[in-house]
Structures are given as structure tokens and as C-alpha cells.
Amino acid sequence: PLGVAEHKGVLRIAQTITHWDTQEEDEVWATGSHQEQWVKTLGVEEDQVVELGRLELPAPEDHSIQAARFYGDRAYLITYAQQDPLFVVDLSHPENPALLGQVAFDGFIDYVHLVSPDLLLGAGRADWNNAKFFLFDITTYPPRLVDSVTIAGVTGGPDFWSPQRIVVAPGNNRAAVSLEKITESTTTINSANAVS
Questions:
Q1: Minimal CB count within 10 Å: which of 49, 60, 98, 179?
Q2: Percent helix, strand, coil in the chain (nearest 5)?
Q3: Strands 154-155 and 166-169, how do they pair?
Q4: In 22-129, which ranges are E strands?
């Protein structure tokens, strides 16, 4: 989910850590788990990689990071299990990452892309059989869901929302997406669909 990026000599990482719970110390089988979501900043000091700062996201224990993008001094992160939140993190001070805001919404986002300095596009699903696109205003904190659109009967495979499958045309508010149409016996590729 594009969870690593370098900016001004600082490496930024979005990370989900899973802790497996057992009933006893010598127990081999896990009885459950809980997860933590972190944004970490790393630098180099005296030829050693060192952690500069970290922020734990206030996401539920059953969530994991599904999409992450770093633009300038900001991180945009999606975690989910049943309902997604979008987190916006300020990384302008690498030693002290700060949560600027979060917003919850219905659906699932697997990929986020900055379409302008003010707008963030999320691509994902309304459910397993319907693609959904989300548009967020990121000039306010918490961010605000401006609009969403669902396209029925289309979905994708594991790489469905890879950066190679979506193209955003800056300046004209359009994105081209390759979608896979669901049929009873097979999956076929639709030609590029425009979302505006």
C-alpha cells in the first residue's frame, strides 16, 4: 500500500504490527491477536539508521493499514476491518509526528491518490461486488468526505488498486480506471472508465 517514502532525508514508514496472543508462555497455537498501527520516521546518524519519531494511530485493535500515501509533510492512511477511517498525519517535525484528524466512512479504500493540493481520491469497494470511489477535502482537519460514487458489478483481483491501474489527469478533475466486470462464469476487463 505504498507505506514507505523518503522526504528531505527522512524515511517515513506506515506499519501494522500484529501481536499474537497465547494462553500460556509455552503454548504454540495463537488464541487471538491484536494489532497496532504506527507511523515512524527514520534518519541516519553517525552511519546508523535511527528512529526519529513515531505516532500510534488511534485505530481499533482489529484494523490494519490498507492504504498509505506520503505527500510532502503529510501522510494519508487508511485502516480497516469493517468501517474505514482516513487518518491525516503531520510529518513536518520528524521527531514528533502529529495526528491532524480522521474521518470515518462506509466502504473500503485500498488506494489513495492526491488529485490536487486540496483533494484526495480513494479507490476501493462499497462491498465485494461493487467498486466505490471517494473524494476527500484535505484542506480542513478532520478531512471531509466531499462525494462518493459506487459502480455496480465491478471488482478486481489482489492488484486491483495498484498505481498502474489508475491514472489521474491533473487540472481537469478526471481519473481513468481499469475495472473488472463480474459475470457468472468469468471475469472480463472493461475498457478504461472515467470518474469525474
A1: 49
A2: 0, 60, 35
A3: unpaired
A4: 32-45, 48-56, 64-71, 74-80, 84-90, 98-105, 108-114, 119-127
Using a 10 angstrom Cβ sphere, with 0-12 exposed, 13-18 middle and 19 or more buried, the burial of residue 186 is exposed
- Of 89 and 156, the structure prediction assigns the larger pLDDT to 89
Distance CA 98, CA 158 (A): 32
C-alpha cell at 176: 481513468
Whether this prediction's pTM lies above 0.70 is answered by yes
Cis check for the bond before 142: say yes or no (omega within 30 of 0).
Answer: yes
Phi first, then psi, for residue 163 (nearest 5°) are: -60, -25
Query: Of the candidates 151, 135, 136, which has an alpha carbon nearest to the alpha carbon of residue 194?
Result: 151
Cα–Cα separations (whole angstroms), residue 190 to 60, 110, 167, 175: 36, 19, 15, 15
Residue-wise pLDDT for 49-65, tens only, equals 999 999 999 887 778 88
How long a stretch of residues is the chain? Answer: 196
Choose among 17, 9, 3, 1: nearest CA to 89: 3
- State pLDDT tens for residues 72-111: 999 999 987 656 789 999 999 999 999 999 999 888 888 8
**CB contact set of 85 (below 8 Å; sequence gap of 6+):** 59, 78, 79, 102, 103, 104, 105
